[in-house]
Amino acid sequence: MSVPPFRATVAEVGRHVGLVSISGELDLYIESELSRALYEAEGLDVQTVAVDLSGISFIDSTACGILVGAAKRLRTSGRELVLVCNDPRTVDVFELAGITRVIQLFPTLHEALQELLVQSV
């Protein structure tokens, strides 16, 4: 079984939400690509950056740290980062690491966008 390649795309949804869609494995080897995608999203003129992790197959502590770092940077300018994930293994990692206490987690992209776009009106 081959590992899906890491992929990250950044888009603006509406005028208030930046979306980073990620697929593949999030580990030490993709640190610079993941950081680059998050910095690109932070550069958008949006209130919230949503990181869709629905397409990932693995996440390690390096990637968790990168996500928390991006959330902290956004908070310093009054903005926020939210995560989208419903894979029980990944959600468990976030809960065990305490990430769900500092970053809001949505089970689906639809639910995240529904709430975030309504908040921005």
Major pleated sheet: 5 strands, mixed
What's the total count of β strands? 5
Look up the CATH topology: Transcription Regulator spoIIAA
CATH level 1 class label: Alpha Beta
Any idea what the CATH architecture is? 2-Layer Sandwich
Our Rg estimate from Cα atoms comes to: 13 Å
Q: How many structural units, i.e. domains?
A: 1
Strand order of the largest sheet: 1-2-3-4-5
How would you describe the overall organization of this protein?
The chain contains four helices and five strands, in the order ββαβαβαβα. The model has no long low-confidence stretch (mean pLDDT 93). A hairpin with a 3-residue loop joins strand 1 (7-13) and strand 2. Helix content is 40%, strand content 31%. It is globular. Helix 1 packs parallel to helix 2. It has helices at 31-42, 61-76, 88-97, 109-119; strands at 7-13, 17-26, 48-59, 80-84, 104-106. It is an alpha/beta fold. Strands 1-2-3-4-5 form a five-stranded mixed sheet, sandwiched between helices. The chain has a single domain, classed as 2-Layer Sandwich (Transcription Regulator spoIIAA), CATH 3.30.750.
